[in-house]
Specification:
Blueprint lengths: L14 H37 L2 H48 L11 H8 L2 H20 L3 H9 L14 H35 L3 E3 L4 E3 L1 H28 L13 H31 L3 H30 L3 H19 L6 E4 L8 H6 L1 H4 L7 H12 L5 E3 L3 E7 L2 E12 L11 H7 L3 E2 L1 E5 L13 E2 L4 E2 L9 E2 L9 E3 L5 E6 L2 E5 L7 E2 L3 H10 L4 H4 L8 E3 L4 H8 L4 E2 L4 E5 L2 E12 L15 E11 L5 E5 L5 H9 L4 E3 L5 H4 L6 H14 L4 H6 L4 E2 L2 E4 L2 E4 L3 E5 L8 E10 L7 E6 L8 E5 L9 H10 L1 H12 L2 E5 L4 E5 L2 E12 L6 E9 L2 E5 L2 H8 L23 H19 L3 H24 L1
Parallel strand pairs: 3-29, 21-22
Antiparallel strand pairs: 1-2, 4-6, 5-6, 6-8, 7-11, 9-10, 12-16, 13-14, 15-16, 17-19, 18-19, 19-20, 20-21, 23-27, 24-25, 26-27, 27-28, 28-29, 30-32, 31-32, 32-33, 33-34
Helix pairs in contact: 1-2, 1-15, 2-4, 2-5, 2-6, 5-6, 6-7, 7-8, 8-9, 25-26
Amino acid sequence: MTIGITGPERKAPRQSAVVGLIIAALVIAIVLTLLALASDFLVDWLWFSVIGYREVFWTTIGAKAVVFLAVWTATAVILLLNGWLALHFARRRSTQLAAASVWSAAGNAPPDLLALVRDRLRWPRLIAAGAASLALLVAAAEAGNWGVFLQFVYQAPYGADDPLYNNDIGFYLFSLPAYILIKNWMMLALALSALFAAAIYLVHGEIEYDIHRRSMSSTVIAHGSALLGLLFAVKAWSFGLDRYLLLYGDNGVVVGASYTDVHVGLPALWLMIGLSGIAALAAWANVRVRTYRLPAAAFLLVAIGSFVLSGLVPVLFRQFFVRPSELELERPYIERNIALTRQAYNLDQIAAKPFAAEQKLSFKTLDANKATIDNIRLWDWQPLSDTYAQLQEIRTYYKFHHLDVDRYWLNGSYQSVMISARELRPSLLPPNAQTWVNHHVLFTHGTGAVMSPVTRKSSEGLPFLYLRDIPPVADGGPQIREPRIYYGEEHDSYVIVKGSTPEFDYPKGKDNVYAAYDGTGGVPIGAAVWRGLFAYYFNDPNLLLSSYITADSRIMIRRNIGERVRTIAPFLRLDHDPYLVISNGRMFWMQDAYTVSSYFPSAQPAQDQDLNYIRNSVKVIVDAYNGTVDFYLMDTGDPVAATWRRIFPNLFKPFSVMPADLQRHIRYPEDLFLIQAQLYQSYHMEAADVFYNREDLWQFPRQPGGGGVATMAPYYIIMRLPGESQAEFFLMLPMVPSRRDNMIAWLAARCDAPDYGKLIVYEFPKEKLVYGPFQIEARINQSTEISQQITLWNQMGSRVIRGANLLVIPIENSILYVTPLYLRAEHGHLPELKRVIAAYGEHVVMKETLDEALSALFTEPGAVRPVSSTMEEMPVTRPSASQAREALDRYNQAVERLRSGDWKGFGTQFDAMRELLEDMNRHSADR
């Protein structure tokens, strides 16, 4: 026999190098994974620190961490406990059965693969890993609810009780949502525990489920019964919470707890709490009995009880007992719904006033309301957007994102203006200029704004520009000393400022003007470690390789104002329309923010919105140059805002410290006004009988639009209310009766101090017919003169564009209707304001200017036409013989064009003749 003796095997020459590479790769992978987890945290920390809200960052991160760790720990402990118990019981039973099954191994039977795998697994570690992993998923989902738990801890009282349970409404706003989340987590944890334990029992043969045999051991039954008892106990608490959820029901008549809910649903829930408690005791008793029948009976008790008591009985009770006397029985609950809905949306603060709807307007009353007449908006946003784009975008990479209506004191008068920021969109650069340097280093900011009065136009029908061109030129508008826009409504990516090369500022002829940023915006990126961080964050190695980045460079991220505000305060809901304000030579964005809840008791949810409570408690100011963000608290009486102020004590500033000039530009937000107006259509009816029968239901006016019929939108306007001494800035909207077109009321929100935020509804006499916008539109279309002229223009190759809104203008106790008419070439994009249509009473006129239209409407013997300061007037002269000859010449040329089939030439000559004749007629009347 040969005995071989061998020494240790010699390693291959390259083996150590391979091992080193593998270790290095693992280290790099771990580092990259940690960097991926930490990059968001570090970028947010840097950004919050620079912008001045580090405390907000740490509070938010701390709350998320606490919620995450608490949920993870609790879930992991529950899963681990159930997994360990299942393993313990399964192993003990397996040991007892091992001796009886040893003999089967002596034969030739194939080994049990499941048993081989099961016996080789390290079950304690596997259970710990599984419990930790499942808990990780649950905790990650629950961490997003950090705000709910912070509101629960720091909740402020509302100061009023709900009428059913006499709880402070703050309980429903702050405590109930937290309880529901905890209840849902407990149900999920118990369900996962049952599945987790069942998997262990299944692998260990305690549960058999195949074609031939379905069974489970008594150990499994005992464990399952214990979990089922806990589930029934949580279900009993769930039924207890359901008592409060009755306040959010809707049976089509009452929103909130109805007669059926209070007299049947509430007692049924108490019974279900008792049944769930009995079911829990029965399940726990089965831990010792260990039979199928007791848990099945407990389950059927709760299921059938829930179906009968919470489903069938309330339906039958409402159908056969409540419906025959529905109004009488539901009256107190309808009154609760009305009162609490009005309270949730501040509808109870709307002041209702009568509006006589008289027909007494004259030149004298128009002159007394000169501020209203001078600010009637003739420029709609869509035609004006096209005009701005054609005249003032200057280059293809500039864009006017949105037009806003605001008011300024200009040249001693209070004027309503349209304004839009000229922002930069690098994606519109030519294809060969789509480079990293252009996108992130050179083309970094927009420039200036365009402003025009809402009424004035040039002789060509174009807007008169108060602000125009690059760099901004002020011609009657406010001066802009810092026109650069680094933060706005565009959604472009990051930019680098204070680099080694100047930034593109604006074009000047064939050359470009360059400038260097000297503000405080952006995060320092000069250090190599920060460059590496942001390169990884944006997946952009150019941030590491570029030579344009210096030690002083800064990176501007989250430049969209909506994203900027949401990152700091994700608990605020933002209005869709931030607007530009020019103040003291600088440009700012004003963003309205709302505090909302969907847990206000017995309040009607807003249409297409997940809320039934809303306040415009916060105004946000964003500096367009530096990107600073300031939150100003408007409504100190809002409990939701008060709660968030307790959570973030340094986030909100008092409204009184907002700069005075910016305070002059706050306006009532359109989104809130629209929600309130929609609800007020029904909830202006405070009598339960009237509300139940929908006797006085309102709706928004209809008007032609988009090739069909559209709903009128709210609009901003300067006007003087009846009985007031001066004109104010308002947001208003007319109302018409349901399925009718005559006007019944108009709702207005005041935007100027000291009455900011007050809402007024002026109601018309029900016995008097007041034409609504759709009826006035019909009268306009029926006017032979107007329809013929529009048809003629359309046949001449021009496109007639009507105003988006037929403006309803309250003057004294009368209503004036005004709408603009624009012309645009068939293949052109430059609309021109050509005519103004005005209506009053039974009269409808169309003239070249608003002043002429009003003169035609209110012609009186010996009356003098009012002169509007907002119109471009020509000196008054008497008609001459030369004008008459020119008119006759225009007529002859028009006839010749018509005979030759030249419709365009005919229209041109016809318009010129018409203008001459109208001018002669005006001069004759002025003599």
